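Reproducibility note. Readers wishing to regenerate the assembly model reported in the main text can use the exact inputs given here. Chain order matters: entities are listed in the order in which they were concatenated for prediction.
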Amino acid sequence: MTATATTATATSDRILGGPPYAAGAESFAEHRARLGPLPTASAPDGFIETLDRSGLLGRGGAGFPVGRKWRSVAGRSDGHAVVVANGAEGEPRSAKDRALMVLRPHLVIDGAVLAAAAVGADDVVIYVGSEHRAAVTALGRAIAERPASHDPIPWVVEAPVGYVAGESSAVVHYLETQDARPTTVPPRPHERGVRGQPTLIQNVESLAAAALIGRRGDAWFARAGRDRTPGTALVTITGPVRGTGVREIEYGTTLRELVADAGGLTAATDAVLIGGYFGGWSATADLWDAPLDPASLADRGLGFGCGMVAFLPADACGVWATSRIMEYMAGESARQCGPCIFGLGAISGALRRVAAGSPGDTDLDDLIRWAGQIAGRGACHHPDGAVGLLQSGLRVFADEFLLHQRTHRCSRPATAARHG
Amino acid sequence: MGTALRIDRIRCDGYGMCAELLPERIELDDWGYPILRPGAVPERLLPLARRAVEVCPVLALTLTPADVTERGSGGGRPDLTDPGR
Amino acid sequence: MSGTFLWYATRGAGLVSLVLFTAVVCLGILTVGRWGRPGWPRFLTAEFHRNLALLALAFLAIHILVAVFDPFTSLGLTAALVPFSSPYRQFWLGLGVVALYLIVAIVATSLLRTHLGHRTWRAIHWLSYAAWPIAVAHGLGTGSDTGALWAWLLNGACVVAVGGAIAWRIEAASAARAQIEGALPAATRRDRPR
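Running the prediction on these inputs yields the following C-alpha cells for the assembly.
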C-alpha cells in the first residue's frame, strides 16, 4: 500500500507535506531546501520541555506523551543511551510507518538524531520490518546521502516479520540476541535496554513529528487539531472506500470527513475497526460524527492506536471478521506464556466454530469467560489486545454472535463462501 | 507498604504448586496457570507465600515490595501510564 | 564395637542411602514431569523429594564416617576426600568419592536455590543423572555383598525404578510439547488481504 491521499491545506506543511507522493522518497537536498537545517545543537537545552508543551503523543499505538518518554531516558543517560526508531509496523492493516519511511526518510532520520541529542544517546538504530523492502531501501539510501556531522550515524536493523516483533522489550531483545520475542519487564527499556543502556524506543511517525517541532516549535504544532489533541496524524484506511491507503489528517477530523476526503464509500458499511488489531470494533452509526482524536475516542471506549481505520462491508459477517483476526493474533503469539498460548488458542478455536455455524454448546459462554480471564496475564500486552478486540466484537456484533451460537446460521452467508 | 507476589509469566510453566499452597491468593485458570489476587499479601499468609516461592520448580514467583507496579503480575488493564510500552 | 559390626554398619548405611537416593531421583523426575493424582497435591512430591534427599544425605554421612573411622579398614579421611587415593578397591571406592562431591554440590546449590537463580541451580542439578549411576557403580564395585542374589535384586530394582521414571518423563515431555504446539494456529506471517 502506498499513500494516495491529496492532503487538505491544513496538513500541507505537516508530516507528509512536500513533493507529491508519486515522486517517491524525498532526497536530502530537497528535504534541506524545504525545511532548513535541523537545530540539533540546541536540542539538549529545553527541547524536551518544548515537546511537553507541544502535547505530542506517541504514534506507535499507546499514545504516551513523547516529551515524558524522552525525559525518562534523558534522566538516566550518561551519554551512552540508545535511540531506536521503531518502524517495525507489525499491524498488518497499517501502512503508515512504511509509507513515511519510503516517502520522507530524512524526516524520520532527523527525528532520531534529534532524539539522540536530546536524551544523550550515541547510538541510533532504525528498526524496520524486513519484509518492507521499499522502506529498508529508502532508509539505506537516505542514510548514505547525509553529510558527515558529529551526530551518530544511524544504522538500519531489519526486524523479523511478526505482530509482537515491534513491542519494546522484543525490540531490545532482538537487538541483543536476534530473538524478537518480548521479555519480562522490569527492567523496562528506558531503565536498562540495549547493552544495559537507557533506550528510547519511539515510533517513526512520532520522531518525524518531533523533527518538525524541532524546527517550527510547539506553538506551530498546536495550530493543527480540531478537537482536544493537537497536531496531525497518519491514518491507514482500508475497506469499501474509494481512496484506500495512508493519509494525514488533523486530529479531530470526523470519520465522515475522513471518508469524504478519501473519495467516499464504494459499498455500504456498518462496522469499522479503529486503532489496529489492538484496537476495537465500533458500529459506524455510532462513530460517523465522532472526532478521530485519542481523547474523544478513549471516552467512547476506543483508541486511536496506530491510526488504522478498517471498514467492514455490510455484506460481510462481523463474527467471521473477528474470528479471522483472532486466528491471526493467536498465531502471532510468541508462545512464551501459558495464558496466551492456551487462552488465545482456545478462543480462536471456539470463534472458528461459532463463525462457521457449528459451535459447541458452551462456546459463546466460554468466549466471554476466557476474555475476562486472560487479560493482563502475559509477559507482554499481546493477549490484552487480542482480548480487547474480541470483547469489542462481542459487543458490536452481539446479535450476530447469538444468531450463530443459537441457530447455527449466519445472516451474511456470502462471507463464508468468499473466505472459506 | 507490604509485600506482594509477582510472577515471571515467561518462566511460569503451569506447575500449579503455588495455588495448592496459597489458594487464598492464587487460583488456576482453565489451563492450570495462576491468576494472582492483586495487592499486598496479608501478614498471616506470608510464611505460606514464602513456601510457595521456594517450591516453584522454575522459581517463577517472587515477593516484592507492594508499591512496585508490575505488568503481567496479576490481571487487569495494561498500565498505559508506563513509558516503557 | 567389633570390626564386623562397623563393617555391617557401613554396608548397611550405604545400601540404605542408595535406596533413598534412588527414591529421591525418582521423586525429582516425578516433580519436574508434573506427575499428579487427584487428591495428591504436587507440592508434596516436590517437598518429599527435598526432605528425603536430606535424609539420604544423613545416611550417606553415616556410611562415610563409619567407613573412614573403622580401625579395621584403615581407610582414613583421605580416602573419603580424595578420589582414587585409597589402595583398597581404588577405582570403585574412588567413584564413591566422586559421587559424594556431586551430591554435595547438588544439595548445596539446592539449599541456596533462591539466591543462585534458576538457570545456575538447574545446570548443577542435572549432575544428578551422573551422580546416581556413579553411586550405583561404586556400590556394586566395592560392596562385599556383590554376588549375592539379594544384592543384585536390590540394585536391579533401583535401576528399574530410575529407568522407568526416565522413560515416563520422556513420554510425558513429548506429550506436553505436542499439547503446546497444537494449542495455537500456525503464524500466517503475511499481510492480510484488504
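We highlight two features of this model. The CA atoms of residues 106 and 126 of chain C lie 8 Å apart. Residues 149-183 of chain C form the longest helix (35 residues).
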